[in-house]
Amino acid sequence: MADKINLIVDGNEIQAEQGKTLLEVAREYGKDVPTICYHDATTANALCRICVVEVEGQRVLQPACIVKAAENMKVQTRSEKVIRSRKTILEMLDSTMDLSEAAEIQVMMKDYEADPNRFPDAERREVPVKDDNPMYIRDYSKCLLCWRCVQVCADDAQYTFAINFEGRGYETQIGTFFDKAIPETTCVLCGQCVGVCPTGALKPKREFLLEQGMSPNEISVLNTGRKRRKEKPT
Amino acid sequence: MLKPDRIVTTTCPYCGVGCNLQLHVKDDFIYKVTSPFDSPVNHGNLCVKGRFGYDFIYHPKRVTTPLVRRYLLEGKPKPEGREQVFAVSKDGNPVAHSQISNDWDWVETDWDTALNITADKLVEIYKRDGSDAMAVYCCAKATNEDNYLLQKMYRALFRTNNVDHCTRLCHAGSVVALQQATGSSAMSNTASQVIMNDVFIVTGSNTGENHPIIALQMKEAVKQYGAKMIVVDPRRIDLVDFAEMWLPLKPGTNVPVFSAMAHVIVEENLINHEFIANRTEGYQDFIESLEKFTPEYAEEISGVPAADIRKAARMYATAKNAAIYWGMGISQLSHGTASALALIHLAFLTGHIGRDGTGLNPLRGQNNVQGASDMGSMPFHYPGYMRVDNEDNAVQWEKTWNIEAGGLSRKLGLTTTEILSHAHEGGVRALFIMGENPMMSEPNLNVTRHHMQQLEFLISQDIFINESGAFADVFLPATPFAEKEGTFSNTDRRVQRVRVAQPPRGQARPDWEIICDLALRIESRLGRATAKWDYSNPEEILREMASVNKDYAGITYERIDKVGLIYPVPDLDHPGTPTLFTESFPRGRGKFIPLDYVPVVEEPDDEYPFILTTGRVLEHWHGGTMTRNSALDEAYPEARVEMHPADAEMHGIMNNMPVRVTSRRGEVVLRATVTEKTSVGVVFIPFHFAEAAANLLTNDALDPQAKIPEFKACAVQVFPARESDLPNPDIVLERGRY
Asked: Smallest Cβ distance to A234: which of B29, B224, B730?
């Protein structure tokens, strides 16, 4: 049995198992700490900072997904500072990317009364949809750089290492090495990345085509395009 | 953003891992597949087939109307010859014309007509030629319920044990070896225990491509849990990047390599004395047979350095928990049984069996090959591996199926390969194929073709007219996994639910319904009051089977609604049995069986200097009925022969160059991939591609006990060919993956 520690969360004295993160502890006690980049199946990296909480004695807000609960910690999961920080993160996200398919983030926007027009002059990241393989498309206008796809492609699941961050600062985006098309990379088309994408930036080709207005029948015929070419005498 | 009409939880129809799927369906169209991250099988991970490879369901070439040849409809005599006629896709109309005779045209018909014709012909042949003329291929892709019913139909109505399926072509050697040595024939431990291994051997298995999700667990075991992996394989598969050791043996030299490891373990006294004394028999005779298998002798035969054999043996023997995972590279040989026994001996010597994180683990290929075998889709066994030549077993099934005493045949049936080689006058006359494709999966296809043509009556129950169905007299359109209810049993014995995601397309019907309907028609023509055929749902079928097969006794659909159960599940409260043999083996003591080295039947020589080994690629599935009618075919559109750079240079062959690969039995033309993934002297061709079918080349030599063919080694020559010799010169595979 792991050792128990005592801490105070939102004014309540609680017990937690040693080694648990603040996020795990908070959720165990029914506290709503929002997450975006965090996923049960990937290693937490505290990239998005939406899960920040206020810890007494700490100069800055602490990301709950990686900070471990400690003895006598005093934590506030929804202080004014926390709420303001989360709201700003959401507003910044919304002003630079397309959140139309990020249902959970849209709920957070309402919850935190985020103002979509807070940063009217922000430059939106708009890149063309990459449709370079038969299985999935990559629409990086919808990418918030949560890094989950890179993690599951690497040692959180697949050990294939086909994608990573490229560029710096505002120019950062997810890409393949040397910007090669997916079929020419080490990608095995497993779609682990599609499975963890929170914003619809990665999605199955069939889903994408349906959304483009193609009918199931048209999509099914599309599969056979290559074969029809094959039958042509050469 | 699409909102699904429904999300249906089911089990993947591809490999034996048995990944849990959630099918997102809109307007009866599966547009997305996800997997629950809390799945105990695959933890939310899938491979390209499982996540994207379901679009074959909607392919225009899928047949959803019963088809019969015109001669049957018009009551004419069968035209001479048996010609392959594939459905052509014209306005979605799957009616094709025969070249030889209008009477051999496919004609669309209704179920009544198709099933009455089928019942009439089967009964006519049975009454004329008796039980031995009847044979059936069950299907490792269909559900347990489908398979149970089909073997029941042939055993109960036609009184024959000529019942088999493709297990004969994949793990028959492993099954026979495990039966002889332990009395069981499944993985002893589960795939999720890979992370509990300290040392594990992967041999004859390209796990990364053929069981991708188990390979992830192997990589995790190495990278996160500090396990050490030993890969013993002629190919430098992707797992080698994660391995502590790679032993690149020559194809077909498993027995000397693993027996030499046993030799080292005995010589250096790394054996588990207690285990050998308490749990095994035949040890003395066995160690005498080991004497000649020195590592130096094995090196001479296999090419694996003796020092590496010694090191691997020590690693395996001295580990706290060690396990062995193997695939077809062990079993698909004319001495496949012996190869598997060589592995079993290692576990017996060291006691690395009967505990979590150890074991003997044949990775089963198909989604339900374990289940189809459990269901008695085999010529020597009723469901539950009950021998057909055992009087008590026969009596038990006669009672269950309401058959008169002595009614069931006590004679061992023909195996998959034997069924076709017996297709001649006085032999097998009628063959029912459910979902299999022997015209792709049998060895030496030119001979298989000849055998298929000798049949008097051939029924294909499938979703496409594949290379085998194209020979059939009757085509019965069945439903794929997403249009039926049932269960699959995966490679680690986990029984999981398969669920309806959408209604059957066209007139297609679930296999179990077709079988019941046909059985009732046959029964009334035979005038036999026999077994039950009027099931209202598949669970009734499973419960009937489980009333005799005690491994499944505690399995109900309710219990496996969310998470599958790992059999044996002897009663309704039993939680399942992830680890077998903890106390004893089903046969009592584990049996050591002395081995001899027998070379492969066809060794390379001056004329045919290369060893051809066959296998699969990640993007395709076996005979290709599903994946070649899917976007997966765009991801991997053509057959390739892999050749080592040293061989390629010597023969003037460059990457992407067309080459002609010839064996004593046939030839194919395809592009070369020059790669160190294969070893010197060995070429590799996947067997999915009809236009360059690897099995035109393979040798139909059989293992004498398991009757499994030698797919993994035959001699070939390779010469440059012209672009115009290629079946599809305008297609070039462009993939960067290893």
From this structure: B730
